[in-house]
Amino acid sequence: MIISALAFYFFAGILVLSSVLVITAKNPVHSVLFLILAFFNSAGLFILLGAEFVGMIMVIVYVGAVAVLFLFVVMMLDISFADLRKGAMQYVPIGLIIGAVLLFELIAVFGTWSMSDDKLANLAAPSPGESVSNTQALGKIIYTDYVLAFQGAGLILFVAMVGAIVLTHRRRPGVRRQSVAEQHARKPEDVLKVQKVTPGTGV
Amino acid sequence: MDLNLVPLLPEIFLAISAMGLLLVGANFGNESTKVISWYAALAAFVAIMITLNVPSDEEAVLNGLFKLDLFASVMKIIILIGVIASISLSVRYLIQQGIARFEYPILILLSAVGMMVMVSANNMLSLYVGLELQSLALYVLAAFNRNSLKSSEAGIKYFILGALSSGFLLFGISLIYGFTGTIDFEVIQNTLMATETIGFGVTFGLVFILAGLAFKVSAVPFHMWTPDVYQGAPTCVTAFFAMVPKIAAMGLLMRLLFEPFGIMADQWGQIVYFLAVASMIVGAFAAIAQDNIKRLLAYSSIGNMGYVLIGIVAGNEVGASAVMLYLFIYMIMTAGVFAVVLCMRRNDHVLENISDLSGLSRHNPALAYGMAILMFSMAGIPPFAGFFGKLAIFNAAVEAELYVLAVVGVLTSVIGAYYYLRIIKVMFFDEPVDAYDSGFPLARKIVLTLSVLFIVGFIIKPGVVLNAMQAAASSLFVG
């Protein structure tokens, strides 16, 4: 018990600290690196909750893909983050006020938090216990009971792909492309010329 | 596992046709935009036919994720009619603006699939998936003219605010799940009915969900994005935005509020009440100061969403059928108005100012009279269809004893009449400027003619539409 509590505070503490550093770090590359640290720690929190699948996905998707993508964008695009941040300080007071109000409201909600008596009976897919692993349990329902949501998510990714191409793909003129069919259709006669060269005269 | 896919046939058909058309487009390039657009419109038409022939059923399928009751069927047909109209309006405009890319009709079809899932959602998960599918396609469409700074700005603005509102929605859903332990609408409804004191957390969650959805229907105070996005996006995209997505969002809102949260009507009633009043007032007053016709129509749509929300506050069958009738009539009117707005070009330049309409009656009387009828209808002047929409809404408000709402609604529609009538004044009485570029495409003329015919002819046989709406509304209150 005490170990899991310690682990929780360890992960949660580093998570909060690195999130703060993400937005305060001067160097954008450092920000991204702190973001990666934050993702790792939230993955740790998920594993503590017993959701090891979500934790691993967190590492693979967020650290492996999203954060690396951020890093690429930060390094490749010439964006002056100092300029972007200029003038942002004037919004700090109002931001703090709104944040404080939201915090108090959330405390009010969680202070009076109650749950329905039927809560446990209502669970659509209760945790199957220790014998079945998390990944297996998810796999059992995601392609059967929740196939609509699964396919819908697929369509969303499809739209994202089409959208990315629509918004960024530009057809450049004068680009030489490989045409396999043309290459295969080439015959020796088309490109080769056999010439008889008599010695001493040149071509 | 229950795998009854029959109720999903329209969605499946549309999704597959979108993918097939994408393949065709990838093969033939942007020259095929026109052909693909018409095939997309045809696909939407076939989807209407399928929807008409699939039996609607009160039972949810696919593990309770999806429900095709009569309400969903009627909403889907309205959405698909809007899709056909907006594709027909777009084709020539895209070519004229040099942004004819074959992905355009495909994105519209895919967002239509999202909207159809939204109105059929019977679970928070399918609700969210449908909503995101719809929104993601809309973000791309808003930025479709990527060489224009304004269009890109519209896309970014819409995307960031939309992502924020999705965050609100998800947070709200998580609070509801925290209380009830379920995301299924029917189970939520039963649980809330069985609970004596509904926790503070549920109300809080409902508020967050409402904030997220109010953004999608652009109700005040979540309307800030609307004028900028409407102005920045290409006009044919604006036409689509003004006509279709709000219908899906309203349908979703109705299902959510009447079915799972029906028992909490006292609590959401106050919020929607406020949204309705604020939208009507802001929509009426802010539109007066606009010079750009797209911004004017944006504020007009905010105001109109306010009237629609009155019907939701009423919270009964009369209100629900009034909402559907209003949405349908509003969609048809908007299609006609945008058909005229899309014709506004001179020397190959798009015109967007209201003053550019001046003297239209001399150069192009047919267009001017069509627009005048549409504006009279928008202002709610009898005997046009717009009047009956408003009448149904105010009737529902009075029946539910919401007198204040009805009075505010009547007052704001009088104020709104000012700017609609101003357009008529500009068209008929102002000094004419040069004529527009001639050669309006046939599809645009057909959309305008059908729209005007519907508006004028609605009074002759209102029963056809009314009965369908009433039957659909009553299916919403069966449970």
Biggest interchain interface, per-side counts: A-B, 35 and 50 residues
Under CATH at level 1, the class of the domain at 1-83 in chain A stands as Mainly Alpha
The average pLDDT score of chain A comes to 87
Widest β-sheet, arrangement of strands of chain B: 1-2
User: Whole-number radius of gyration of chain A?
Assistant: 29 Å
Radius of gyration from the alpha-carbon trace of chain B, in angstroms: 21 Å
| SS element count, helices of chain A | 10
Q: How large a portion of the residues of chain A is in β-strands, by DSSP E? A: under 5%
Major pleated sheet of chain A: none
Strand content of chain B: under 5%
Distance between the termini of chain B: 24 Å
**Annotation, overall tally of beta strands of chain B:** 4
Mean pLDDT across every amino acid position of chain B: 92
In N-to-C order, the SSE pattern of chain B is HHEEHHHHHHHHHHHHEEHHHHHH
CATH architecture of the domain at 1-83 in chain A: Up-down Bundle
Pairing-aware structural class of the strands and helices of chain B? mainly alpha
- Unreliable residue stretches of chain B: none
Low-confidence residue ranges of chain A: none
Count of DSSP H/I helices of chain B = 20
Helix-strand makeup class of chain A? mainly alpha
- For the secondary structure, the number of strands of chain A is 0
